[in-house]
């Protein structure tokens, strides 16, 4: 099997008859109550793939993932929206997709409707919505339930300035009330505010998992070592 020369970015690429990318390898990770784990790593390191695997969106072809409690992947929050259905109908559609029964959805619907501030638009098909209006709807319904485990791939910046502030407050609140939070972002500032541990990923592996500032140091050294190796004759 031919394996391409190692590069700075991405997972492990190998080529036989077809190109395959092993997005995750040798992952062993256990999280407990109170953990707020920041995922660090360059583009293509495997952060999103790990979040999707933890969420059950991508089943691993080896090994297993065990989650105790309700998990909410706040990734692809617009997934499953039906353009022809009204805003109100889409609240139900998203709620069902998130695994909730109709009585639970009925209970949160007034709050979701109010949070969106979409008023009469909620009775119109969402194909008539602007992208910001769609975000308001999908954000409001996706954050209406308090999950025990929250997985977040980049901070959700939604809608106009006023809505963004309100959305950020709500997002911070459900994260604070969650038991476990896993967060992928390139922003160290956000990690310092939201995470209490850091995991450094590279080519699909977790190379370091521990205290957040130590994770930053590990990542800086990894980048410096790679740059030195690339510059070597
Ligand atoms: N749909 C896909 N099909 C094939 N390969 C993919 C797909 N999505 C991601 N990959 C590969 O999986 C590897 C890990 O990608 P992933 O999106 O998990 O990285 P990431 O750390 O989240 O990157 P970024 O910081 O750029 O978001 C990369 O090598 C990428 O090329």
UniProtKB/TrEMBL annotation:
<dbReference type="InterPro" id="IPR017871">
    <property type="entry name" value="ABC_transporter-like_CS"/>
</dbReference>
<dbReference type="InterPro" id="IPR003593">
    <property type="entry name" value="AAA+_ATPase"/>
</dbReference>
<comment type="similarity">
    <text>Belongs to the ABC transporter superfamily.</text>
</comment>
<dbReference type="InterPro" id="IPR027417">
    <property type="entry name" value="P-loop_NTPase"/>
</dbReference>
<keyword id="KW-0547">Nucleotide-binding</keyword>
<dbReference type="GO" id="GO:0140359">
    <property type="term" value="F:ABC-type transporter activity"/>
</dbReference>
<dbReference type="GO" id="GO:0016887">
    <property type="term" value="F:ATP hydrolysis activity"/>
</dbReference>
<protein>
    <submittedName>
        <fullName>ABC transporter ATP-binding protein</fullName>
    </submittedName>
</protein>
<dbReference type="InterPro" id="IPR015860">
    <property type="entry name" value="ABC_transpr_TagH-like"/>
</dbReference>
<dbReference type="GO" id="GO:0005524">
    <property type="term" value="F:ATP binding"/>
</dbReference>
<keyword id="KW-0067">ATP-binding</keyword>
<dbReference type="InterPro" id="IPR050683">
    <property type="entry name" value="Bact_Polysacc_Export_ATP-bd"/>
</dbReference>
<feature type="domain" description="ABC transporter">
    <location>
        <begin position="7"/>
        <end position="228"/>
    </location>
</feature>
<dbReference type="InterPro" id="IPR003439">
    <property type="entry name" value="ABC_transporter-like_ATP-bd"/>
</dbReference>
<dbReference type="GO" id="GO:0016020">
    <property type="term" value="C:membrane"/>
</dbReference>
<keyword id="KW-0813">Transport</keyword>
<dbReference type="Pfam" id="PF00005">
    <property type="entry name" value="ABC_tran"/>
</dbReference>
